[in-house]
Amino acid sequence: MEKTAKIDFRGNTRSMSPAMVAATQKSARTALVKRAEVVREFGEESWQKLRRAGHDLRMHAMMNLDRYLAMAEEKVVAAGGQVHWARDAEEVHSIVLDIASRHGVRNIVKVKSMVTEEIELNHALQNRGISVYETDLGEFIVQMAGQRPSHITAPALHMTKEEIADLFREKLKVETTPDPGMLTEIARKVLREEFLSAGMGISGGNFLIAETGTLVLVTNEGNGRMCTSLPPVHIAIVGIEKILPDWESAAVMLKLLARSVSGSKITAYNTFITGVREGGPKEFHLVLLDNGRSRILADEKAREALACIRCGACMNICPVYNQVGGHAYGAVYPGPIGSILTPLLLGTGAAGGLTFASTLCGACSEICPVMIPITEILLHLRRRCVEGDDVESPSVSGKIRTAARAGRYVMESPLLYRVAARLGNVLLENRRDGDWIKSMPAPLDRWTMSRPFPAPEGDFRAWWKSRKKKKETGVNE
Amino acid sequence: MKVQLFVTCLGENFLSPMLQRMVGILERIGVTCEFPEKQTCCGQPFYNSGFQKEGREMAIRWMKVFAPAEGYIVAPSGSCLEFVKHRYPAMFPEGSDEHREAVKIAGRAFEFSQFLVNVLKVTDLGASFPHRVACHSPCHLTRGLGVRWEQEILLRGIRGLDLVPLNEAETCCGFGGIFSVVYPEVSMAIMDAKVRNIMASDAEYVVVSEPGCLINIRGGLQKMNSNIQAVHLIDILAMGGAA
Amino acid sequence: MSKYSPTREKIFAALRSALGSSAASTIPPLPDSARFSPRNAETPDLEVERMIREVERLSGRALNIRSQDEFVRALEALIRDEGVRTAVLSGHPFHESHGVTELLKRSGVDIVSPESDRRRLADCDLGITVADAALPETGTSLLRTTKGQPDVLSLLPRIHLVLVPREALKADMQQAFAAAKNDRHFVLVSGCSRTADIEKVLTLGVHGPKSFHVWICSQFN
Fold it and tell me: Which of A170, A288, B67, B162 is 20 to 30 A from B74, alpha carbon to alpha carbon?
């Protein structure tokens, strides 16, 4: 793993805009309410069975990944498509640039794809003078604003309609009011032109059905279809973990996905692409990307993270995400799934802090449509940070580790425990304000900066001992 | 019927009166309480922070303290109890002595409301408490242990108690153990949101049956100069005459 | 000498090492727990009702057409209400057997060929397709992409009309897939193109059609 800059979650959280946090909460709440309705309609018991099926089929696919990938490749090639393999970002850039140059491509239209953000594809293309247009409305907006998406399914969530109107006025030189309908109409006109003239379309893929080598795109806006039907060349970049065994599995996934994302029963469009077809793009290229996924697969306690279908439900329900928003996580994947994927992909050296960005409340594991045990994986990664394992050496400072281990001896010994408690009482006596201690010395000032600490009250052991004595002396009398 | 009391670190250092009331309630319904005096920390704060080796060693020690007896182990905390019940067996390789011991102990361990409703089958302790009461759903009690309805059942068995709805009752309070000191700003923001919901509920009391959460929320309400009192379910039962 | 690239070999080596598997081993069958039973259909009439209800839930308009007369009236109303001046329809036998082309011409609508230039199709008001399968559970229509029914028909014009033969209604997605899974391309269409990317306000007709109609057609004529 190459060295990456350390993600400072605490630092990031101190610079979040209240407007963004408010927008995040509003969106999350709406999605959760709608999701609850459709899950109720589906039937709670059936939904749990469906989640189990989702988990088990995804893990079956992961445990047989090499063979399913080989199957998918064979089928895509038989259907006239071309399959490329890439271990990292650079290899994908190389493949895409090569295809683009062979076709003299100047303009590319792109469907939103997390994996292309992971490898910063747009950057690589733009550096070679190729224009890339993000065509999902939210991505189109954040691209224009030069910002990073803040939620995996609603990228412009953090921007108000007024900000978007200002942006359009400035960058597109159009007159508009901050009305979502009008803003959408403007985007539709601008992008239609791009769809019809682009030399290449690039997409990701929600799933890849091994049985027939079929790429599945799950979208609402129609741009997914535009990008993969209109330009003469289509490149799909797909993480190797997106494999589904067969069509029955695809039916299960589609039942889970839209409901989990936003509480619709299904998205407006589900497109199924196998190789090359008449009337469609002349060339279809499938780029299968590893970028750390095979390493996660080898990590027995973490491999269920690969089952993720990128629905965003975990972040909608996460109390931490709802107070800080997506950007705080400093990487492509935010929220609970981000707090495990990012340390797995970039290493705990760079992203270990994210594994502690959780109260372990368990709401994410409970809502995940494919039953990823997110809190279990967090504990596994915390161990990696503190103790190190065969994947990485510890990343928590030696000082902290020593202090914690010393603390353990106090907590474990009945004598030291009592001594420490008594000592604590004495030391804090002069900070006492009635029932409360309003400020504490570091590092416990991190508690008292937010709320007062309770003054130690009563002594259960002493009470128990004296009661016992009373009973015994009573009996003896 | 005998129970061994698992008082928890936070309980014994900050919620001593609540522990005394727990003893009072249990004795009043005919349960004999024992207090294994050598008990200290169950190891959760260490294990959950990544210090799994230390956590495991503390678990072994903890089990030695509680193993000799045969009766139930009862704690006024879903979090600590869940750790013993679910994590202890998972910590040790199957077939090992520690694993066997952990499975035995797990079978005997119950959280207070779980013990009353599911083991003793007691839902009415003859208490009366004519006040408006909201109830927070602690994460480890509900999601971890699956103890979702027992608190409400016990509250509804209290005469005159008006159980008022609490918005986002199942949302975390922001304590999260070390989370509160590793990311204090975020912890505070989550706590503030919980406190706002509590204050909007128009309750006089809010039941928080989890020591860590209770200390957190109490502090949060104090910071807002609220008159709402955060108490454990045990406190309500005791105030209602069940102790 | 392997026909595969070194990169591919490295990735597969990493995967096999991670799983402790070998290239030759066969894939075991999926466990039962990885399967979910398909939905059972209700009575045919209830399925039609459900399809209509679900389409309307998706902000589409749905009709149950039981006679040629009803069909004619519905088409004339659509043309009139949505100001249709140009239309493109797939080369599907259904259109022939119901005289769709004549009806459109009679109402003064210019017919554009499905093989026209994309820009021509993009300027079209109405695209008419025939569904190969439909799913009442979610108000979904399955449109197989063929030479006669290219997928742009349901994408570029601003109004999309899907004609669903009654026999096309299927209880569950799995049954719908059975017919189309070996195709090179097909789409499931469930309502209008839509987005809520701006402040979570639902807007219809982003890149695809803004208006969506589903007519369930019983066998008539």
Answer: B162
Distance CA A273, CA A83 (A): 14
Check: CB of residue A240 under 8 Å from CB of residue A290.
Answer: yes
Which residue is listed with tokens 């038989």? A78
CA dist A292 and A307 (Å) reads: 14
Would you say residue B126 lies in a domain?
no
Whose CA is closest to B175, among A24, A451, A312?
A: A451
Asked if C135 and C96 count as a contact pair (C-beta separation under 8 A), the reply is no
Mark which of B72, B90, B119 sits at the end of a domain. Answer: B119
**In which band, very low, low, confident or very high, does the pLDDT at C203 lie, cut at 50, 70 and 90?**
confident
CA A270 to CA A390: how far, in whole Å?
A: 42
Of how many residues is chain A composed?
477
The reply to whether B190 and B158 lie within a common domain is: yes
Tokens representing B124 are 């009415």
Which residues span the domain enclosing B53?
Answer: 2-119
Report CA torsion sign: A392, A398, A403, A409.
positive
Residue A236 is inside which H or E element, if any? strand A233-239
Mutate which of B5, B6, B7, B12 to disrupt the A interface (most A C-beta within 10 Å)?
B12
Name the A residues in 335-374 with CB < 8 Å from any B CB. Answer: 356-363, 365-366
C204: nearest Cα among C164, C163, C158, C135: C158
Report the number of distinct structural domains present in chain B.
Answer: 2
At the second CATH level, the architecture of A43-291 is: 3-Layer(aba) Sandwich (3.40)
Distance CA(A141)–CA(C100), nearest Å, equals: 41
Tell me the three state secondary structure of residue C156: coil
Q: Place A456 in a pLDDT band, splitting at 50, 70 and 90.
A: confident
Would you call A366 an interface residue with chain C, using a CB distance cutoff of 8 Å?
Answer: no
Give the amino acid at C110: D
Residues of chain B with pLDDT under 50: none
Which are the contacts of B171, defined by CB distance < 8 A and separation ≥ 6?
A319, A361, A363, B193, B194, B197
- pLDDT for the residue A55: 98
Output the domain CATH number for residue B236: 3.40.50
The rounded distance, in Å, linking the Cα atoms of A341 and A460 is 44
**Residue in chain A nearest C116 by alpha carbon:** A279
- How far B18 CA lies from chain A's nearest CA (Å)? 9
Can you give the residue ranges of every domain in chain A? 43-291, 398-476
pLDDT tens string A252-301: 999 999 999 999 999 999 999 999 999 899 999 999 999 999 999 999 99
Give me the interface pTM, i.e. the ipTM. Answer: 0.96
What is the spatial distance between Cα A447 and Cα B213, in angstroms, rounded to a whole number?
13
- Contact residues on chain B for A366, CB-CB shorter than 8 A: 143
List Cα–Cα distances, B209 to B135, B138, B169, in angstroms: 9, 7, 13
Joined together, the tokens standing for residue A266 give 């299904």
Over 70: is that where the pLDDT of A475 sits?
no
Chain B hits for A13, CB-CB cut-off 8 Å, are 183, 185-186
Model confidence at C98, pLDDT cuts 50, 70, 90, reads confident
Measured distance CA(A238)–CA(A345) in Å, rounded:
16
Return d(Cα A60, Cα A244) in angstroms, integer.
Answer: 9
pLDDT of residue A477: 42
Place of tokens 């209400």: C81
- Quick one: which of C210, C197, C195 has its CA closest to A164? C197
Average pLDDT over residues C167-180: 94
pLDDT at residue number C3? 73
> Quick check: C63 pLDDT over 60?
yes
B143: nearest CA in chain A? A362
Query: What per-residue confidence (pLDDT) applies to A440?
Result: 76
Structural domains of chain C in order of their starting residue, each with its CATH number: 43-217 (3.40.50)
How high is the pLDDT of residue A1?
A: 47
Same domain, B145 and B72: no
